[in-house]
Amino acid sequence: MKKVKTDATATVAENTNTVANNTGSPFAQAATMDLNQAVTVLAQAAQLAQKSGVLTVNDAVLVARALELLRGQEQTNETS
Fold it and tell me: Would you call 63 helix, strand, or coil by DSSP?
């Protein structure tokens, strides 16, 4: 897993197994998902939605901020 900076300055984990490219059972993947993986899935879904024109600029900004907040919460939980 590698880290990349997004335009909204949120750090998003970019997994080589993206949502669309996984070949395993989605039920098994969902059962073992942790917080980091959940945020990654949501970030990938938001990026796909924005690229396809489903999200407005306003929506994209709100999603980016929500991801920033979740990432901050996640990092706080990991250091506790």
Answer: helix
For 75, other C-beta atoms within 10 Å of its C-beta total 12
Euclidean distance between CA atoms 28 and 8, whole angstroms: 32
Number of Cβ within a 10 Å radius of residue 7: 8
Distance CA 44, CA 41 (A): 5
Q: Is the pTM of this model over 0.85?
A: no
| Tens of pLDDT, residues 61-78 | 898 888 888 878 767 777
Q: What are phi and psi of 5, to 5 degrees?
A: -90, 135
The residues spanned by each domain of the chain are 2-13+34-79
Bridge partners, 13 (sequence order): 3
